[in-house]
## 1
Amino acid sequence: MWERISSFILRYRLFLIIGMLLLTAFMAWQAKGVRMSYQFGGLLPKTDSTFIEYTNFVETFSEDGNTIVIGVNDSSLWDVNNFREWYELGNDLKRISIEKDTLVDQKSMTISKSAVDSVFSVAHSYNLEKNTEERKFEFNKIVDGPPQTQQKVDSIKNVLYSLPFYKGLLFQDTTNASLMMVFVNPKLFNSGDRGNSIEQIHERIKLFEKETGIETHISGLPYIRTQMMKKIKGELQFFVILAALVTSLLLLVFFKNFQVMITCLLVVCVGVIWSMGMIAIFDYPLTMLMGLIPPLMIVIGIPNCIYLLNKYHSEYKKHGNQMRSLSRVIHKVGNATFLTNMTTALGFATFMFTHSQILREFGLIASINIMCVFIISLIIIPIVFSYLKPPKRRHVRHLDRKWLYHVIEHLQHIVTNHRRAVYIGTVIVLSIGIYGVTLVQTTGNVVDDLPDESSVIQDLKFFEKNFSGVMPFEILIDTKRKNAITNDGNLKRIEKLQELLAEYPEFSKSLSIVDASKFAKQAFYNGAPNRYSLIKRNEQSFIGPYIRGDYQTQGIEKTFMDSAKQVTRITAQVADIGTLEMEKLMDDLKPKINDIFPPEKYDVIITGTSIVFLEGTTYMVKNLFISLMIAIVIIALIMSFLFRSTRMVLISLLPNMIPLIITAAIMGFTGITIKPSTILVFSIAFGISVDDTIHFLAKYRQELDHSHWKIGDSVLRAVRETGISMLYTSIVLFFGFGIFVASEFEGTAALGVLVSVTLLVAMFTNLVLLPSLLMSLDRALTTRTFSEPMLEIIDEEEDIDLDELEIKGQRESDKYDN
């Protein structure tokens, strides 16, 4: 088969290159349509109970994560000029809109959509007042216009401080902290139609800061999502460029040939364009995981180029015939490179077996594009070099580097004379590694991986310190009976639960229908602060008519109850304490909630974005371990099919499992937690490291035939023949993944370090431990079926008939140009 592929590529090289250019142009055009992801989601399957509960909550009470919060902690806010600027800030934010071009009646029109639904702050708040004539409550603005005097501001402050409803919500009466809640349009902010609304909001806030000199802090899920996506987009471009530069330098150091460097860059650049185009074609959003794919295509594509170019140069060095060398590149290395790329792709494809949407999308795109990069390299490298002049002597001199042979000779010496030391060292390292694995912890945060000095983290800490956090937290209480929420007993239970939440510093002030009822009672008694309490039975007869008036139409009841008055909510915010601490918090809280609301009488559901993220992270980590197990099984089956020896497969898996244990131990000893961004290291590293095993065993099997089953000689020759390419590719992969250390996301930086270390360790286990095992176990391991595989990976049959290759303008007798 590979003979026909080789003949086809070299015969129709012009048509293939033109087709490649056209397809790449199409992918580049598609790549312009890649959309960003502005939602925290996709971790849980739609059938998961937590996801269903949250969806039901959103349908009943609307989405919870649609608030941007602006915080200050400065007493000068209450100075008349500064307070007026605070008031104008809120009004200006409400006027921010986004213009969008659309078709209306086949005519292009620009439609303006409001980005901000409402603003809530000490300068944009309401008081509930009693209208005795109409026997109803009325909402009146506390601030009806920009105050002009300090006396007016002091009066506003006195009113606000007399309303317990707002204490801990809009301001802290024990400090100078105050905040502004900006409720954004959720549909707009969860889509690509948001335009530059966040930038407009940010610029207006900075203008307030400039005018008043008051330091501001910004947070909230819409803002956090936007800032993280900006960083992801920026890092995507940065790492593509950095990966190209690093690999270019390495290629130049290895081959000392600009033609080689440029050709390899052409291969990976086409791969990057195809990967972005593929993301757009499948209409997948660009997430943190998806943003890793383009630089991964560079890191994974370069080893393909190295294997092909090493074979091209070694073949040309033997006989000086360029076309024969290029033919053998495809004919002899194509199958092995195909299989190694396939195993790498399978390592990523196992993510598709999970129920996490984000992982499935990542696994599908990554696996498809890994195979695309293989095809691209197999076509471009032989064709490009068929048009170039044959390599000169200095271009193949890298094959004779003394330091490489010294390294290979040293490895052969270890395998031959120090196998016992290898086994003892392996046992010691494994023992330490297994202990380190027990220290690994699993966790995750909504703003995971951002460094502590990031402005997003610093602002989040401000709100956690002054208002206990901004992450949405909801408790739904189903009384199982219509019109039961407003019963005295149920209201007292809700109040008791809110008092329980107030005991935990992780929660902000909670709000419920109880607070609305207390606010109404205080309004009935003309705003007396000491009347902020639940309505007693003897008060219901004269306060009730006011509540049953327009009070209901103001949306208060709809905010806290469903239409049947059977289900109510307690809404709060929680600090971003991480999944591990959140689990402990929930374990402590749930039994106490059950004491207040007995499960046999009430259904209590804890939900909200923070809970969905908690469950999603736990679910994702669990699925990633499952996908790793699936990858190991699938790759083991493939190797069993290729080598037809179960014992050989078991032994060959060991050198690839040890690096994973060592990596997990490093995580345990250094405190790097297992989370979605770091758990990927195991599947990625296993899929790539097993490539070296396939190359080594394929060469070993070939040498068995040539040496008439002299196992020791075959092992040493396999080390010598495959060692150079393994060293080259491992160095490229080490530095290629090492570039992620420059990421602002701590998880991505850790991923880069861990994958680099894992692949480096895997290189040594495949070049030292695996050969040692083969020599020690000798014929007990290497059965006759191993020498009779189902497929030939490295084919040493006669070359195709070169007379049938008619390449215009290319002489087959080219020799070295001295």
Note: Residues 101-106, 550-554, 794-818 have pLDDT under 50 and may be disordered.
## 2
Amino acid sequence: MNGRAAAVGKVSRRDEAAVALRARPVERTIELSMLLSAVFSILITTGIVYVLVTEAAPFFRQVSLWEFLTDTQWTPLFADKHFGILPLLCGTLMTTGIAILVALPLGTAIAIWLSEFARPGVREVVKPILELLSAVPTVVFGYFAVQLVSPGLQMLIRDLNLFNMLAAGLVMGIMIVPYVTSLSEDAMRAVPMLLREGSYGMGAGQVTTAFRVVFPAALSGIGAAYTLAISRAVGETMIVAIAAGTQPNLTWNPLEGAATISAYIVQVSMGDLPHGSLEYQTIFAAGIALFLMTLVLNLLSVILRARYRQAY
């Protein structure tokens, strides 16, 4: 019997070794494909940076960086040319800030409700509907802002321009709610059930557990959702181009119209300017500013998540 058992053991080990040998090429192929995907994404990012830098370099040889950062006027398409990025930066930050004030509280509240309070059947219906909202073309949101939101605001606020940053920001906030909700809800659903049970065992209620246990435990994923939503708002083009206007205006009044960086890039990219001209090169200078804004946001998110993980 011992000899037969030893023979059976040797056969099983041989079978396992044969399966492992057959699996190695498959595993190596999968690893290689993942490596190529990572390298490909790095190459794409490097190519984007290369194009921005090489195309913007002639612009900064004619316009000083100091003038670009401090001039309060942006009129490269006018006879009296000024190349100050502040008006476009102001419009971008203003509309993004309004969108954040709408999307982050609303999206987080919906995510907490879906994760901790909604019944499974309700969750399976509500979450796909919210995710479908993110598939609506942004041009539709833009005309929704002009045709419905701005007239509605004009009924409440006297002398409000049809094209204003408030309407654009509000609609942008509605647009990015699904990004905040879906990713935040996934992060909270990934929190181990043991943490919830431990909280209940200590006498905490469902609301306390949701806000004091689940939310802090999922803050890393929620922070990633916030970063994605903010970056999406910073780079939004059609809503602000339609609802906020295309006139650069250095103002912090949300009731006025203004242009954003992305809206200006679209405006100049229509093909009316000759390639290689100073006016055409302004879109790459503006593109660098937009790229650096999103880069800073992502780096800040990484730093905050790392610090929170150490503290938690």
Note: Confidence is low (pLDDT under 50) at residues 5-9.
